[in-house]
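User: Okay, second chain of the day. Same drill as before: sequence in, structure tokens out.
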Amino acid sequence: MTSQGYFLEFFDTHVDDLFRHALMRLADREKAVSITRKTFETIWQKFAQGSSTSLDDCFNVLDALILDEYLKRWPAKRPLQEQKDIRYGFIRTAH
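Assistant: Same drill. Structure tokens below.
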């Protein structure tokens, strides 16, 4: 099987799982579609270079793109510590 055929089979097998993962985290269908597309574009580039890729690699790329999307939502003017806390799931409130 050619690399393109293998990629298309890989895509058909895993696209729904990756899309659902993105949709659950973003709650925005258009963004989930866009990020899933970007994930497969990145994976295709790896295939084209001759690298093997696993489903874990796809989820790693997808999660990095989702994190980038989350970080776009928050203004850059927040204090650095608060930005770090938000990135790791904590939100501090000033007392």
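Residues 51 and 60 are 16 Å apart (CA to CA).

User: Thanks, on to the next one.
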